[in-house]
């Protein structure tokens, strides 16, 4: 039951992140893109840029700094490397972003979170 609740909360957080991104002028290109390397929560575009975004939700803001780690970012980066050509047009930049969410807090959008 806990796993199902976590899955539902994660999907709700992804929808919240999508709505926030759209309000910031981003176009959502894809959701929950699965690859052999892992899953990308959101693929979004602004002019000249495609972002592969990992979304993390925690029940308390104090937990947010521990929500993302190098292992998870490496998996998103590997997945983005596999499918990036499907989303980015010639000359568009690509990057890995993170959006952290917690009740009562505005979204924390960490840009260019992975730099190998």
Question: Whole-Å distance between the termini?
Answer: 37 Å
- What number of domains? 1
The computed structural class is alpha+beta
Q: Give the total of beta strands.
A: 5
Question: Biggest β-sheet: count, sense, barrel?
Answer: 5 strands, mixed
User: How many helical stretches?
Assistant: 2
- Mean of the pLDDT scores? 93
Order of secondary-structure elements:
HEEEHEE
Q: How does the overall form come out from the CA principal axes? A: globular
**Fraction of helical residues:** 25-40%
Proportion in β-strands: 25-35%
CATH-defined architecture: 3-Layer(aba) Sandwich
GO molecular function, one term: nucleic acid binding
Protein name: UPF0102 protein PK98_04925
Pfam family, one: UPF0102
Family: Belongs to the UPF0102 family.
Task: Give a written overview of the molecule.
The chain has 116 residues and is α+β, with helices and mostly antiparallel strands. The chain has one domain (2-110): Trna Endonuclease, Chain: A, domain 1 (3-Layer(aba) Sandwich), CATH 3.40.1350. It has two helices and five strands. The chain has a five-stranded mixed beta sheet with strand order 1-2-3-4-5, with helices on both faces. Helix 2 links the parallel strand 3 (49-57) and strand 4. It starts with a helix and ends in a 6-residue tail after the last strand. The model has no long low-confidence stretch (mean pLDDT 93).
